[in-house]
Amino acid sequence: MCEPSEVQLGFFEKYLAIWVLVCMGIGLLLSQLIPQLSNIINDLQIFGISIPIGICLFLMMYPALLNLQFSELKKLAKNPKPIILTIISNWIWAPLITAFLAYYFLAGYDQLIVALILLGSSPCTAMVCVWGALAKGNQEQNIMNTSLNTISIMILYAPVVTLLTGVQNIPIDRLALLMSVLVFIGLPLVLGIISKKILKDRKGDKWFQKVYRPAVGNIAIIALLATLIVLFSLNGDVLIQNPSLMLLVSVPLLLGFFIIVGLNLLITKYAGLRYREAIITVIIGSSSHFEIAIATAISLYGVGSQAALGTTMGLFWEVPIMLSLVYVGKKLNRKGFWKK
User: Fold this and answer.
1) Are the C-beta atoms of residues 299 and 180 closer than 8 Å to each other?
2) Domains and their CATH numbers in the chain
3) Cα-based distances in Å from 109 to 5, 23, 57, 168, 206
4) pTM score, two decimals?
5) Angstrom distances, CA of residue 262 to CA of 69, 239, 285
6) Pick from 76, 160, 173, 181: CA 20 to 30 A from residue 117's CA?
7) How far apart are CA 242 and CA 112, in angstroms?
8) Per-residue b or e along 244-268, where b marks 16 or more CB atoms closer than 10 Å to that residue's CB
């Protein structure tokens, strides 16, 4: 998925924003037609975790964590500047800007504030491979960054979320947060490393890259859409009675995207990066790992929570924004925005 070859968006990826909207509608419809659905799903639990949602979330996370390539991390010293700028954006600018916007626009809605913090503190490791390839960016840098993000999330995600929620004295279950990282990133990461080695040894690298990864990638998107249907079916009454909540959370989300993207564009320009490195830095530095954000929100507050719904809006807006950034980046390059 992060190979330097030409990449085209698949059927699901190309229309992902539309599928998200459709799933929202299906979920809302189910909430009115089958109101007992929430009780059925909530009864299927182990240690407080919904079994159906847990399976879907695992299928969402596992393909993304197949991007990890330890061998690529050895190349960091070759050209560290774009990698360093991306790390700064992922773990300083993006979390702080998103959190401050959430504090300002969502005061009194603690779960929605947490939803934005979960999104802003989770650097992407999956879809950026597609965006980077479409933008004709440096895919070697893309692989290094996504591999580094996979490791850094394990270490930094829980502390950063804890710090930013603590600023506003928002109570959060730190143990549940840590368990979310271990279960939804650690477990798929370990299984990804093991399965990757076994399958490559038995089937070869070409089969793994060309057959297995695209197949599990499609399963991940289907699992994501299934999760969204469940989310909106369980929260149908909340949405129907309070439709302004999704509009409310969209304001800081969109504003945050524009500020972070604009900041990264300027930083890469004045840092003297060339287009191929700059566009990857902007894309990865401005995107979110919405899978882990959704998973953590569900773990912390439950399937039928405002936090879970708030994180889904991050997914809804990120797809068209990142796709637009690909074309904006190409246009800026033609106009000589970055160093030649």
Assistant:
1) yes
2) 11-333 (1.20.1530.20)
3) 45, 25, 25, 11, 49
4) 0.82
5) 30, 32, 11
6) 76
7) 13
8) ebbebbbebbeebbebbbebbbebb
